[in-house]
Amino acid sequence: MTKIITRFPPSPTGFLHIGGLRTALYNYLLAKKNKGKFLLRIEDTDRKRYVEGAIEDIIDTLNFFKLKFDNEPVFQSQRLNVYKKAAQKLIDSGLAYYCFCTPERLEELHQKQRNLKKPTMYDKKCRDLTEQQVAEQLKNEVPYVIRLKMPENETIEFDDLIRGHVKFATDLLDDQILIKSDGFPTYHLASVVDDAEIGVTHVMRGEEWLSSTPKHIILYKFLNLQAPQFAHVPLLLNPDRSKLSKRVGDVAVKDYLEKGYLPEALLNFVLFLGWNPGDEREIFSLDEMVKEFSLEKINKSGAVFNVEKLDWINGQYIRRKSLEELANFAVYFYIKEGILKPIFRSAEVKPELTGYMGQNIEEDLVVKKSGEIISFDKFKMIIATEKERVKTLTELPEATKFFFQEPEYEKEMLVWKKADMEKTKQALDLIYNLLKEIDEKDFTADMLEKKVMEFIKANQLDTGTNLWPMRVALTGRQKSPGPFEVAAVLGKEKVLNRLKKAMEY
Ligand code: GLU
Hints:
The chain is α/β, with parallel strands linked by helices. The protein folds into 4 domains: 5-76 and 236-311, HUPs (Rossmann fold); 79-233, HUPs (Rossmann fold), CATH 3.40.50.620; 321-403, no CATH class; 411-503, Arc Repressor Mutant, subunit A, CATH 1.10.10.350. It has helices at 18-33, 54-64, 80-92, 103-115, 131-139, 187-198, 213-222, 253-258, 263-271, 286-292, 307-320, 323-336, 353-356, 376-384, 395-400, 421-436, 445-458, 463-475, 483-490, 492-504; strands at 5-8, 37-42, 70-75, 96-99, 145-148, 155-160, 164-169, 177-179, 202-206, 229-233, 236-237, 303-304, 365-366, 373-374. The strands form 6 sheets. It has a 3-stranded parallel beta sheet. A 3-stranded antiparallel beta sheet has the order 4-5-8. The protein has a two-stranded antiparallel sheet with strand order 6-7. Bound molecules: glutamic acid. The site of glutamic acid (GLU) has 8 residues, from α6. The site of glutamic acid has 8 residues, from α6.
């Protein structure tokens, strides 16, 4: 069996988005499942649409998601001669031709076609220029493009591994430009030449490329090259089944990381955009994906992008992570929210998100406002109070802010719904005096709970009236983890201070 070779060939016209991550993941999985190769190629031949920083973003993001590519990435802009040669070969064998039509003429032509509600296509004016006419124009240095001589009245058929048998009438296909007037190849020519040269066996890409595939098949044939197999993965859809909007910023992968999704969770979510194992399982590590992935289980119909599902998966991953790891992922968001100060003491930690997330920070942290030092162990304890609850990492700083700074709240909040100000004051007083006598080393959630509950029982007190104000005094929040858990993490000194402040209130 020939070794499977897949490729991911992004154009650096923007940052890696969710659709691109899915394509990269599927290609990675298909290759790795079959012990084949997964290659990265940068299709940077469209100089007008080049976006600064896009290449770095794509490579950094793939690395961050551990979608390791084999070999060094290939840059098409460094291979212009290869494409020129291929185009020349086509011209020499009469399968491509020089076109000297001006952009103005083409625009006029297309406008006419649009007015008649016809598809905009080249009218083949230069297709039958004589050799002499061509030589003349070239001699006069008239700008030109090279076009493919699309066969007429033929049908191109192929078996797509996902979509099944597909047919295209060549009459509906344009005489595709292969080399642009700036001498750069178009995507079609360059990708065919490259895929053949590296021996790609499977081209897996978004459905939006399906209509380009017959052009590629013709090119393989004309260049005498072996065509790979094609697999077109379904479009991404909004929940209302409209095409997923490309609102910039909303679908970039790093934006999702910024929103507090864990990379493993995002990858797991992306896996399910068009694929499922055919059973109930929903959580897959990258290794499990490699084991389970198969082209046969990719759906034909569009894949709905459902953020609630992403939230759910992310929650699952947050619960499953060790505290250690989760805390390492969380630090970035506390710095972003201005709660902690940036730390770059470790050479491994870089200021950008992918430099922070999941890195072994494990150093003391500094609270930005007060300069107080928080040990990494303490930070872990703080994270533990919300680990079972939050859906995204961005929720953590807000939910745990009160551990780092004095809470602010309206004094009315201290009063439980079935109590009044007087009873509340008494309750705070009782709890304060009780906790004051408890030894620092007994300030654990279990111990505190035991002592306070025993006291409440012994004195026939009401739980809500007494515990509610304690919790609010410590957290300043309507909702939070229980008072004993919070007290244990805060420590005796801070607890007593906050209770005292509440009493003064
Ligand atoms: N450069 C194309 C893109 O940006 C590659 C399409 C393909 O996989 O052939 O998606």
